[in-house]
């Protein structure tokens, strides 16, 4: 499998305070990787380490399968914290500064980039008068100017109105699908992130506690009847033979999740008890994605 980013034990400390604690992250080529954590969890610091803006205290990192990090970082674009824009210049003038600083000789590349981020019609409007969403899209344009293969974005939709969120979201999907750019993105707006992310990493108090794919997340949030029993094999046989239920799984010994017949859970319970199964718990489970993330971050029970 091709990894754009692979880290092992990445740790960052400020004084005696460990901000990033032995993080092992795996971002595959083509991912939109949703990086989730509370404020102060270490998201921004970790992104700064990956982008080369901060040095780790410990750990190893590979970019595009190579440990020659400085050589590979030329293929990274990043927007971490606030975009560095000149407020008294127009969008076109800002990108002209970037074009010249990068030594890009193709002058029409500025117009092409403005069109890509849907800012062609801003004309002589100064950036200081832009909406937050427009500034974010211009910041993304700056990070894209050298045609990176990997884009690192720290809270790019935070503080935006619904229209601004949609514009940035649509742009990221286009970059991923049309330009095959792999994206590492952090966000607090979990409902929006779930519309585009293909993979997730959950960081809590500097520790990356879990990584999983979007398909795994859908299964975890799926509505079901959870059964805690003493004999999983016997309970499964009763579900199939007496209840005529085949859509279930056994995520761990002693637990069964039933995905059908949720309007007759009482009948399932009765058949199990009459069949000699010690039914310890039976409850309906499943929630929206944001609720699931909040329980992961807060350490509560997954339901």
Structural class: alpha/beta
Under the CATH scheme, which class of the largest domain?
Alpha Beta
Strand content bin = 25-35%
Helical segment tally? 11
Helicity range? 25-40%
How far apart the termini lie comes to 32 Å
Run of helices and strands: EEEEHEHEHHHEHEHEEHEHEEHEH
* Overall number of strands: 14
Mean pLDDT: 91
- Radius of gyration in whole Å, from Cα? 24 Å
The shape, in one word, is elongated
Our count of domains comes out at 2
Could you give a quick summary of the protein structure above?
The chain is of the alpha/beta class and 303 residues long. Helices cover 34% and strands 27% of the residues.
Q: If you had to describe this structure to a student in words, what would you say it looks like?
A:
By secondary structure, the protein is of the alpha/beta class. It folds into two domains: 3-217, 3-Layer(aba) Sandwich (Rossmann fold), CATH 3.40.50.300; 223-285, Alpha-Beta Plaits (2-Layer Sandwich), CATH 3.30.70.100. The protein has helices spanning 43-51, 69-72, 91-102, 109-116, 132-144, 162-178, 190-193, 214-220, 232-241, 265-274, 289-298, and strands spanning 3-14, 17-23, 26-28, 32-36, 58-63, 76-79, 150-154, 182-186, 199-204, 207-213, 224-229, 248-252, 255-258, 279-285. A six-stranded mixed beta sheet has the order 6-7-8-4-9-10, sandwiched between helices. Strands 1, 2, 3 and 5 form a four-stranded antiparallel beta sheet that branches. Strands 12-13-11-14 form a four-stranded antiparallel beta sheet, covered by helices on one side. The two termini are 32 Å apart.
């Amino acid at each position: 499998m091709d990894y754009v980013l692979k880290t092992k034990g990445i740790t960052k400390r400020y004084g005696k305070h460990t901000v990033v604690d032995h993080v092992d992250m795996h971002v595959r080529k083509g991912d939109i990787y949703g990086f989730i954590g509370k404020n102060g969890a270490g998201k921004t610091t970790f992104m700064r380490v990956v982008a080369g803006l901060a040095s780790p205290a410990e750990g190893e990192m590979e970019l595009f399968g190579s440990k020659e990090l400085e050589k590979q970082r030329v293929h990274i674009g990043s927007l971490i914290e606030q975009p560095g824009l000149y407020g008294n210049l127009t969008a076109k003038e800002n990108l002209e500064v970037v074009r010249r600083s990068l030594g890009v000789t193709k002058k029409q590349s500025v117009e092409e980039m403005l069109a890509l981020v849907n800012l062609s019609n801003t004309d002589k409007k100064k950036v200081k008068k832009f909406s937050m969403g427009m500034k974010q899209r211009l910041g993304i344009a700056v990070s894209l100017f050298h045609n990176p293969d990997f884009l690192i974005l720290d809270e790019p939709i935070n503080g935006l109105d619904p229209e601004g969120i949609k514009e940035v979201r649509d742009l990221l999907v286009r970059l991923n699908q049309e330009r095959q750019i792999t994206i590492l993105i952090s966000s607090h707006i979990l409902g929006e992130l779930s519309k585009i992310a293909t993979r997730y990493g959950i960081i809590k108090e500097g520790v990356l506690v879990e990584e999983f794919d979007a398909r795994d997340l859908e299964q975890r949030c799926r509505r079901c009847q959870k059964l805690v029993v003493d004999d999983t094999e016997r309970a499964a046989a009763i579900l199939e033979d007496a209840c005529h239920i085949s859509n279930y799984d056994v995520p761990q010994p002693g637990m069964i999740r039933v995905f059908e017949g949720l309007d007759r859970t009482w009948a399932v319970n009765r058949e199990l008890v009459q069949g000699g199964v010690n039914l310890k718990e039976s409850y309906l489970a499943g929630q929206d994605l944001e609720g699931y993330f909040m329980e992961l971050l807060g350490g509560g029970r997954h339901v």
